[in-house]
């Protein structure tokens, strides 16, 4: 029941709506209002999004608003805003979602161009979120700076929000009314402007390219005085070069933008990750090619990957249900051992293999650790793909250095055979992993990690006794 609030009125601080206590208005848009609210059942703030009373009278808009929650709720990813709940109260549709304390890339770019390394970092993180959504069969269809959130906390997190006009790939035809284009036209792919064309993930590649252009130059790729001119520009005008708009932008980005904004989807990058990788290469043209020979240096690649990318896989996440010191110590040790095995056992030949590994990494990591490892991920993934990285664990020994009810430090000695395309036999090595585990919502997650490659022993050294 709506408690003390008339339908159609703005909610005021202290009022309760659908079980959420309103704290303040966050923003107002064409679709409705967003409030900062407090969940009365759980100790967490939420962003409460209400569909406007006027637009809610349109059955199509109501269905689209409900589809926003259903589609976004399917996407569990550290860089996608989480949907907690949705419902209808006194004829008002609402969605409760993760509250992000911060700003957005739209506000960031209002003050002018963003440094290329910052722009590439933002685009790279959003690309991971989009590729994850595409694999789940969901298009975003409204990628733009305003929908990229940046947290105030340091290190800052980058999150993608507002799947309000997203639709499942298998619902592309007929899911929206003919003639309606809900995407923001400044970033809309040409095929989005024709309701008879079936679209795919490359519409998001195009929009992400427009977003990169905007971040690099501080200007939209196509400027127009009316909708007709803007549509004509996306369909027919030459693709602008960011270096001509902002001479400080490296010219290598011109080719990246030309590919991302190609009029024909077939000429674009096939995934957002490909676009992000191309942008990253512009800033690192002198980066040495991935090492494929001699094999003596190969263990260093694995050691580096373990250091930067290690985190708990799903199989390494354990529930903690007891305050007993013995129980939480054992749970932390078991979780650490499980993900130490997971990160040390892999066979990466393709980008899909690397992406699957990255998803496992993120699934068991704290947000702090995820933010830390993002910067080196693309380079390391490419290196491992290039050498066809493989690793098989033969022995694993773990010991607890210290632990409390919600933090633990674990040392693991991992004996594994590592190999690559040029060395199928492989080399046996021992790596010592020092893992900091943190209990978050009842799960033990990786919060920090360091490693030391000990030597090419065939057995692990005897660890110190468990404390």
From TrEMBL:
It is an enzyme of class 2 (transferase). This is non-specific serine/threonine protein kinase. It comes from Nocardia terrae. One of its GO terms (molecular function) is protein serine/threonine kinase activity. It catalyses: L-threonyl-[protein] + ATP = O-phospho-L-threonyl-[protein] + ADP + H(+); L-seryl-[protein] + ATP = O-phospho-L-seryl-[protein] + ADP + H(+). The lineage of its organism: Bacteria, Bacillati, Actinomycetota, Actinomycetes, Mycobacteriales. SUPFAM superfamilies: Protein kinase-like (PK-like). Its EC number is 2.7.11.1. It comes from the Bacteria. InterPro entries: Kinase-like_dom_sf, Prot_kinase_dom, Protein_kinase_ATP_BS, Ser/Thr_kinase_AS. The keyword Nucleotide-binding applies. Residues 20-283 form the Protein kinase domain. GO terms for biological process: negative regulation of fatty acid biosynthetic process. Keywords: ATP-binding, Kinase, Nucleotide-binding, Serine/threonine-protein kinase, Transferase. Signal peptide: none annotated. ATP binds at residue 49.
């Amino acid at each position: 029941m709506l408690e003390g609030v008339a339908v159609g009125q703005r909610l005021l601080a202290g009022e309760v709506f659908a079980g959420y206590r309103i704290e303040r208005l966050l923003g107002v848009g064409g679709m409705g209002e967003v409030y900062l609210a407090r969940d009365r059942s759980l100790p967490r703030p939420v962003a409460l999004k209400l569909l406007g009373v006027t637009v809610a009278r349109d059955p199509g808009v109501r269905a689209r608003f409900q589809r926003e929650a259903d589609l976004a709720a399917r996407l569990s990813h550290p860089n996608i805003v989480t949907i907690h709940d949705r419902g209808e109260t006194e004829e008002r549709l609402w969605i409760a979602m993760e509250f992000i304390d911060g700003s957005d890339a739209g506000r960031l770019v209002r003050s002018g161009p963003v440094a290329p390394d910052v722009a590439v970092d933002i685009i790279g993180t959003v690309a991971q979120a989009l590729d994850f959504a595409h694999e789940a069969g969901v298009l975003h269809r409204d990628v733009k700076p305003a929908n990229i959130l940046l947290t105030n906390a340091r290190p800052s997190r980058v999150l993608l929000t507002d799947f309000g006009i997203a639709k499942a790939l298998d619902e592309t035809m007929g899911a929206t009314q003919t003639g309606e284009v809900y995407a923001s036209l400044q970033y809309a792919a040409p095929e989005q402007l024709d309701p008879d064309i079936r679209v795919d993930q490359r519409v998001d590649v195009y929009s992400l390219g427009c977003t990169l252009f905007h971040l690099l130059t501080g200007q939209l790729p196509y400027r127009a005085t009316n909708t007709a001119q803007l549509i004509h520009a996306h369909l027919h005008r030459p693709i602008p070069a960011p270096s001509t708009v902002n001479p400080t932008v490296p010219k290598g980005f011109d080719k990246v933008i030309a590919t991302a904004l190609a009029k024909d989807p077939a000429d674009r990058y096939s995934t957002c990750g490909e676009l992000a990788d191309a942008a990253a290469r512009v800033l690192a043209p002198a980066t040495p090619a991935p090492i494929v020979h001699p094999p003596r240096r190969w263990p260093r690649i694995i050691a580096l990957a373990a250091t930067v990318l290690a985190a708990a896989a799903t199989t390494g996440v354990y529930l903690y249900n007891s305050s007993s010191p013995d129980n939480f110590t054992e749970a932390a040790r078991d979780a650490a051992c499980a993900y130490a095995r997971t990160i040390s056992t892999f066979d990466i030949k393709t980008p899909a293999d690397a992406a699957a590994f990255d998803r496992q990494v993120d699934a068991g990591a704290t947000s702090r650790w995820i933010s830390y490892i993002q910067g080196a991920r693309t380079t390391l993934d490419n290196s491992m793909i290039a050498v066809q990285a493989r690793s098989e664990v033969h022995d694993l020994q773990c010991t607890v250095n210290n632990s409390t009810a919600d933090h633990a430090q674990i040392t693991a000695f991992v004996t594994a055979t590592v190999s690559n395309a040029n060395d199928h036999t492989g080399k046996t090595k021992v790596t010592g992993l020092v893992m900091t585990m943190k209990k978050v919502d009842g799960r033990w997650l990786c919060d920090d990690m360091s490693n030391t490659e000990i030597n090419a022993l065939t057995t692990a050294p005897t660890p110190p006794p468990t404390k």
